[in-house]
Structure formats: C-alpha cells, structure tokens
What we know:
The structure holds two protein chains of two kinds.
Chain A: E1 7-14, E2 17-24, H1 29-36, E3 55-58, E4 61-64, E5 77-79, H2 81-87, H3 91-99, H4 109-122, H5 128-134, H6 146-160
Parallel strand pairs in A: 1-5
Antiparallel strand pairs in A: 1-2, 3-4, 3-5
Helix pairs in contact in A: 3-6
Chain B: E1 5-7, H1 12-22, E2 26-29, H2 35-40, E3 48-51, E4 61-63, E5 67-71, H3 76-81, H4 83-88, H5 90-95, H6 102-105, H7 110-116, H8 122-130, E6 133-138, E7 141-146, H9 147-150, E8 151-153, E9 156-157, E10 164-171, E11 177-183, E12 193-200, E13 203-209, H10 219-225, H11 233-242, H12 257-276
Parallel strand pairs in B: 1-3, 2-3
Antiparallel strand pairs in B: 4-5, 5-10, 6-7, 6-10, 8-9, 11-12, 12-13
Amino acid sequence: MNVPADTLAIALTVNGEAVQANVPVRQHLVDFLRGALGYTSAHLGCEHGVCGACTVRLDGVPVRGCLTLAVQADGATVETIEGVTASGELADLQAEFVARNALQCGFCTPAMLLTAAELFKAGAMPTREQIRAHLSGNLCRCTGYQSIVDAVDAVLKRRAA
Amino acid sequence: MPAFLYARPDTLDEALGLLAARREGATVLAGGQSLLAMLNLRLTQPEVLLDINRIAELAGIALHDDHIRIGALTRHAAVLASPVVARHLPLIALAMPHVAHLAVRNRGTFGGSISLADPAAELPACAVALGATMVLRSARGERRVAAENFFTGLYGTERGPDELLVAIDLPKRPAARVAFRELSRRHGDFAMVGIAAAWEAGVLRLVVFGCESHARLAVNAAAAVQGRDLGDEAVRREVAAALDADLDPAGTLSGRPGTKRHLARVLALRALADLAA
C-alpha cells in the first residue's frame, strides 16, 4: 500500500467475526466500531488519549481507539467489551462491579474492565496502590475510584485463591 | 480529523522514497499517540500520512558490544519489558514506567517520542543524559547525530524533511550511576518537572524536562560539580543551586516559572542524592 489514498479496503476480525469494509483513512477505530459495526461500548470522551474511555483490544492488548486509525487495524484482531462479555472472560469482574456499585453512568466501564483485565493476565498480586497506578489512564467521574479498586482487588484475590 | 491521504509502505526504501517525494507534505505516523490526538484536535493537517508501522526492520532492541540499538518503531511496552534494557540501560528502565499509561505504551514508540521532541517527554531527556546517537536515514544515505545536538527547540529537531529516524544507539555505561525523578499530577501524565541524570568519572550529565523548551545538558550544574564529591551534601546543594542558571522555565497550567525553578531544585537534590548513594 504505497500509493497515497483517501479510502482503503480493510479486512479484520472484530469480536470473533470477520469484517470487510471500505473506510475513509481519516476515520479512527472508535468511529468505525461504533458507526459501521454498531459496537457502541467504545466511548469517545476526550478524543485525545487522556480519558481512556475509548480503550479497546487490538491484537490482544489494550489501545486507545481514538488514537488508532481504522485502516491501521487492517489484518488485526479487535475486541470490545461486547466480545469479552460474550466469551465470559470477565464475567466475575463485571458481576463484582455491579455488586460494589463500581459504576454509575457506565461511560468509563467497558474501558475500565478491559484495562483491569491486564492485571489478571500478568498473574501478579498488585497492591491497591499498584491497582490505582495501573488504572490511572482511565478516568471515572462518578465513583471516585474507591469501589472500582475494591472490585478489581476482590476479583484478583478470588482468582488467586 | 482533517482530510489527508494515507500511505502504508512495507519497506524502508519505499518509505524513504515517499518522504523524498513529498518532503514537508508528508507526516510520519509511528505509534500515533500524539499525532492522532493532534489530528483529532485539528492542530495539524498533513497532505500525506506516512504510516511506518508495517516496516518490521524498524522495530526491535539489539545488544551490541558497546551500545544498545533501539529501533525507532519499538513500542514503549516492549522497551519496558526488555531484559536487555533492564540490564544495560538502567536510566531508560527507571524512566519507562513514567511514560504515559498502559494503553498508550502499547502503541507509542521510542523513536516517535524522540522525533516529536515534546518538552515534557521523558525519552529525549534520557537520550541526552546518556549521550545517545540518533540514526537518520534518507534516500541520500545515513546520518548520525548526537542526542545533545538533535533537539533544537520546542518540538524542534535536526531531522530533515526527507529523513526518517530509524534507530537510537544508546551507549552501555556500566560505570555510570543514573537517576530519574519526575513530578506529575497523575501517574503516567506528562511531567510538570523531571530530571534524567548520569554520573560517570566525575562528569555530570543532567537534563531537566517538563519545564524547558527542549532536552539539553545542564552545563552550569555540571561545572559546579566538576572535581568534587557528590557524596557531600553541601556540594549537592551547590550543584542544585547552580542548576538554576541552566533553566528558562515557561509558565504553564502546572505552575509559574518560579514554581518550576523551585521544583527543579528539589528534584535535583533528590536525583543527586540518588547518584551519590
């Protein structure tokens, strides 16, 4: 792809399904996921990488969906919380968020869950301070974070038991 | 986002050909963690976005006899996880946890941070403190630029319009002591004030970032310590005081110039104590 273009045909996997689309090169991944595919869990808060609400998984790791172009996901695997919910990977953490009121408006929640999920992959037992540092790139304006840290901490301990 | 054209070369030669043809019209897209934010905010409008993410040879960390080469496209997450960096580049290892947040580190690149030369970024300061060398390529050939000559001003570098930063060579400095200190309002945010420093054979290479226009050596602080014992707290206080003459802090939302000077002195004392420990 060496000739500069303003539209590009891409093929990728989103939440386990093969997707093909023609996308404007100036469209970022979140607009593509929401507008073209209807995955509305990826939220646009600040659109410059600060709030973290747009976080999705690209090839297995969390990235800022507003700081990635849709064309850059060509050939990649993308997961949103819709896909993760379907797989049940974070069912215990999602239940814990509900039980502890770790969400109110829910705007930050999909991204918060995907970011927290990295702590489970790492297999370590972080302190509350480390959980806070880990989640520091995801803003929540409702909860004050306490209940979010509680929920993540509780599930980490339960999974390790 | 403004309208632009997009090209995604698979090889370095293709990328350099496009850069030679488009020059200032082309903007290189590496990790995009600053560039896409600027595009979203319409602060920049490139004719062509030159996406180098498919050029595999630009990514990777290689251990050589006297230096470590970090490919420009190496993600921050890869640098943070690298045992070679942990073993041979302790200053980079200290700095990396301060570089942005998890999701940004998964995309953002070492070379992108150096090329952008954001005044609050950690890596330009570390590169200057360590005496790194920037490796630039163009269709005309390769050019090497010392880090202390690479950063020229606010977001300004020596990189020419047809050049691509392909790698950063960081010298192994097994005898050096290093220190890294940073103050930010939130973990992972850009620094209000930070210090990267290396101390070897009586030579202090200290760089203040976050409140200066660009990464450069603090020459007054270095002169104040020459031939003296950093283990002596009185000496450290003199050096931290001398640092004031190296600073030209801008007032920003995170503090007035006087506040930045104060914070730089406090951080310098801590960093110097780290070096002496």
